[in-house]
Amino acid sequence: MEVRSILALSVRNLRSNPLRSFLTMLGLIIGIGSVVLIVSLGAGAQALIISQIKGLGSNLVGVLPGASDENGPPASVFGIQVKTLTNDDVRALLNDSRTRHLVEASGYAQGRAKMVSGNQELEGGTFMGVQASYPRVENVTVSMGRFFTAEEDSGLARVAVVGSQMRNELWGGDDPVGKTFKIKRESFRVIGELKPRGSVGFSNQDKVVIVPLLTAQKILLGQRHLSLVRGRADDTSNIPDTIAGMREVLRDQHNLSGLDEDDFSVRNAATAIALLSTITNAVRFFLAAIAAISLLVGGIGIMNIMLVAVNERYREIGLRKAVGATQANIQSQFLLETIVITITGSIIGIAGGAIVSGLIALAARALGYDWAFVVSISSIVLAVAVGLAIGLAFGYYPARRAAKLDPIVALRYE
Amino acid sequence: MAAALIEVVGLTKQYENEGVVTPVLHGLSFSILSGEFVSLMGPSGSGKSTLMHILGFLDHLTSGTYRFEGRDVSQLQDDELAAMRSRKVGFVFQQFNLLPKTTVLANVTLPLLYMPMSEAERIANAQRAIEAVGLSHRAQYLSSQLSGGEKQRVAIARALVNDPAVVFADEPTGNLDSKSGAQIMNILDQLNQQGRTVILVTHETTTAAYARRIIRMKDGLLVGDERVDEERRRAALGGELK
After folding, report:
1. B34-61+78-240 has which CATH code?
2. pTM for the full model?
3. Contact residues, B window 46-75, toward A, CB-based 8 Å cutoff
4. Is the ipTM of this complex over 0.85?
5. DSSP H helical ranges for A16-104
6. Does B85 touch chain A (CB under 8 A)?
């Protein structure tokens, strides 16, 4: 009996009882679907995080105030304000020969304040003080107007460059360039608008007002320290040298002697990407492994139903044997039926998982995240292979039982 | 004289269950020629069904020899028995044993699934067999849509589809009213007249009367073997025989 006939027979048997066939597959559908979904969502989230970090530029090197372990979070994450990082540090980093590969750098000081334009108000709007080198450090450009100059920074000019979404917050969607508004009751003139940049993590970079660093420190914040220093190295290959040089320069600046710990942390996007990839991969495989347990449960469900099917079809098996079916014929028929169930279930599961994952990707994009819809071929191949393995493993015993039936006993079975 | 199709010598069968041996057949010897129409008759428990199962390659014998078409088939293994069932015999059962939710055509095609031939050949053979039992107009009906008599005719078509050397009919009229029963027996009679060997297992005298030879069994032994001449046969059946 050739495979094609057995296959046609299996499909007919499954179609003759569609509800039961579907319920038989359900466990497997859920199992395979969750594996595909989790792997796909994991890949999408990972790609999003990495692309955001890469968007900042992998030549970027950041200095955060406060000590931290090599890979642990810096102190500022916990809300501890560390005042050791200053404008002098930025100047030293740019001028020292040990950091000659650092081509651009800017200090950052940020805060939140009430912003007012005409009769429109924004409570707790984010402003960020940076130096004139900021566009070159972070790879940003203005879509209208211009960025402020180093002279405007040192002269405490009350000028602002606004993120692309600010016009909706303060100017009713009108062109803001040339208009004046207030931050903390201080009047500022808008001289430029940045191109849209999207979100990084939970912060929306388009909903920010950028002002000269000294203006922010002296007029708005009343502080001398920086919350962050970012610099750009001339080449990715020079990053390890640059990081080492920056540590030396900053230790000198902060008068740290041999045994003192760093009171700052130097970070680079490339090391962050590598670290994040490791973590997100581990989480993905862990979740997929949990989902795989439901595959096992699904497989047991299939075996259960196939055993019931063998009992229900005693007479049919007896008849088939009476008209010439061999043990191998009967065994391959039942095994193939199980495999048809599992492969069909796998395909439905893959489609279901991919569809749900696609919907989530659509929802994420609607929320403004650059979420990629990724269903990897390897996860599909894996799902089908696992489905097939389950079919073979859990279909073997029922099929064997059917094949071994004595035709006389089976024919008399009521 | 026609060649012996079936020849058994000293055939015994015993069942063993949890150490208890139950002898069922005690050294039977007889032969059946090609083209005969034989009734195996006897009360229940006489061993006639067991004998049919052995002759029909559904069961192994315990001792003795069984020759089929001159070949010793006493010691065949399961798969060899399956091959003999596939090519040499056809069965008609009391319970019809049709596949439910399946068309007449598919039911009749079933035995051919286990023989090497093309799908087109299978369908052509099945249609020929369905025509032979006069059910061509029902070929696409589901088995559940048929009357009892029609179901048994489908079963006969299924038994014929592989062109077997012998058709075994195990109480074929047991589940039918007398009219449908007579119809079935007439079909079997016609098959025999066309040269097919038919072996009928029954405990009903009226059904057994269709055969041209009656082998009587009791307690696992042959207790009678008589040939019925055509005149007596017609007299016994009266108007039943067409």
Report:
1. 3.40.50.300
2. 0.66
3. 53, 56, 58-59
4. yes
5. 18-56, 87-95
6. yes
